[in-house]
Amino acid sequence: xxxxxxxxxxxxxxxxxxxxxxxxxxxxxxxxxxxxxxxxxxxxxxxxxxxxxxxxxxxxxxxxxxxxxxxxxxxxxxxxxxxxxxxxxxxxxxxxxxxxxxxxxxxxxxxxxxxxxxxxxxxxxxxxxxxxxxxxxxxxxxxxxxxxxxxxxxxxxxxxxxxxxxxxxxxxxxxxxxxxxxxxxxxxxxxxxxxxxxxxxxxxxxxxxxxxxxxxxxxxxxxxxxxxxxxxxxxxxxxxxxxxxxxxxxxxxxxxxxxxxxxxxxxxxxxxxxxxxxxxxxxxxxxxxxxxxxxxxxxxxxxxxxxxxxxxxxxxxxxxxxxxxxxxxxxxxxxxxxxxxxxxxxxxxxxxxxxxxxxxxxxxxxxxxxxxxxxxxxxxxxxxxxxxxxxxxxxxxxxx
Length: 400
What we know:
Layout: H1 6-24, H2 30-36, H3 41-91, H4 98-126, H5 132-161, H6 168-173, H7 175-184, H8 194-197, H9 201-204, H10 208-238, H11 243-249, H12 251-268, H13 274-294, H14 298-312, H15 315-327, H16 333-360, H17 366-377, H18 379-392
Helix pairs in contact: 1-3, 1-4, 1-5, 1-7, 3-4, 3-7, 3-16, 4-16, 5-11, 5-12, 5-15, 10-14, 10-15, 10-16, 10-17, 10-18, 11-12, 12-14, 13-14, 13-15, 13-17, 13-18, 16-17
């Protein structure tokens, strides 16, 4: 990669750290929202649903908007809106109905998150260099490192300042997207390739590969987010572990394992068949769900939660790169936007299903309810195993 694009890559990495902050920060406050503001499990699940429904709408809008305003304006606007939403999260719950304030804040930073995930991947994919799949996994590993850093720092900070001062954290974290907003104003960017502008979405759906890729993105997003978004509350409420220990051994290790898996593939991915890797990762994810839900000892449940991060590590970036490699049409923003839309559908379905089933089963006790919720989400890695096997044996797909 040309030296002049190192700053561009750095801005993209920081963009995915911003994405990790906006997606995962509110989940660290689920217990606080539940106890201090009387927000039910179903409503907590709805927050995640709202996040990704908003991102779905933005993904659809960005299919054409990116062509009009370009990469730079899209990236700058994404970070500005993300920062505004984080600042609102620390203020609005105390100046209006708490849940309404949280929802408004979530919508704002979800708009920024949706714009970020649509524009960052094609920017990186368009940069000079080979090994696109490996590069995409390295990019997405920064989402994991961002999540790890977020959980670790926020957990320790809450321990020091106390849960009553939680509102300070989202305001402080807004400094990250604010910094990157100005960073993106200066870094060199390549224009959208002419061949990418000429490809209509209908062209992609002439191939069965596109249909399977869309379903894989749905299942991959659901498999990742159902575990990631509920791990903190599950550790504290279902396993009876303190918040500090639960967050560090649950979502924190989940992020560590996910980032490690993406870095490993980023370094050695050129030697690995991505389709075979997806089959293996899907099987591992299903086993981790089973271990988390059915283990009798908390340490084994936490191990299942953590190792699930390794299982889901290749799903999102691997499917993106695999599909882009098959069509090979110049890093089309339309292709990335639609696949991101499908992934966000899954990201909303997984946590929503977990929260809804947990709420329905609450009469059986908190632990049983949350275990039932996570067990229901295991349908997604199960479906992904079947879809990955189908993709593995498709003869049409000769480029991947």
